[in-house]
Write a structure and sequence with these properties.
With about 170 residues, the protein is mostly helical. The protein contains five helices and two strands; from the N terminus they run E-E-H-H-H-H-H. Helix 3 runs parallel beside helix 5 and helix 4 packs antiparallel against helix 5.
Length: about 170
């Protein structure tokens, strides 16, 4: 609880217009909170219903811009609003984006773990669905990318640049 200048006790959490807890602090391109009043990166709107094709395009644009945290939000929307039979795919893709986010933030353990978890989820979904290229995505290539990056992260030989290490969802350069 926080105290207002008039001495009244209030909930110190930021709230949205419906009263739900929402952190209103600005964030950087990797989703890290910045001090109140700092110049941040525009947040990715949540709860947007997109076609799967639009989700792939928007996520790729965000990945190319070095914003994997924001790409994860697009994948999360697809996971929550898409068909039940595709939820594991979109959840796995969200984990890959969060794995890249943590890797770029310097979180070796979390980054590598999420990259591998996402790779397993995407690979299992593709195997079970019998689809290697849903919506034009090259899932085998994404799985290989995630495993390779997880090994690089754990080796600690380089600082991970989110933009430079962004995956190509559809495999094209």
């Amino acid at each position: 609880m926080a105290t207002t200048p008039s001495g009244r006790q209030t909930d110190a959490r930021d709230r949205d217009s419906e009263g739900r807890a929402r952190n209103a602090r600005p964030r950087d391109g990797l989703g890290r909170p910045l001090p109140y009043g700092a110049e941040g990166v525009a947040r990715q709107p949540e709860g947007i219903v997109r076609t799967p094709e639009r989700s792939v395009v928007e996520a790729q644009q965000l990945l190319d811009a070095g914003k994997p945290f924001h790409a994860h939000e697009v994948f999360e929307d697809a996971w929550k609003t898409g068909p039940q039979e595709e939820r594991a795919l979109w959840r796995g893709l969200a984990q890959l984006a969060v794995g890249l986010t943590h890797s770029a933030r310097g979180n070796v353990t979390g980054g590598a773990r999420l990259l591998r978890r996402g790779a397993v989820a995407v690979e299992e979904w593709a195997s079970g669905a019998g689809r290697q290229r849903p919506y034009g995505m090259d899932l085998p290539r994404l799985v290989a990318w995630a495993r390779e990056l997880a090994a690089v992260v754990e080796a600690g030989d380089e600082t991970v640049d989110a933009r430079g290490r962004a995956p190509r969802l559809r495999g094209e350069p």
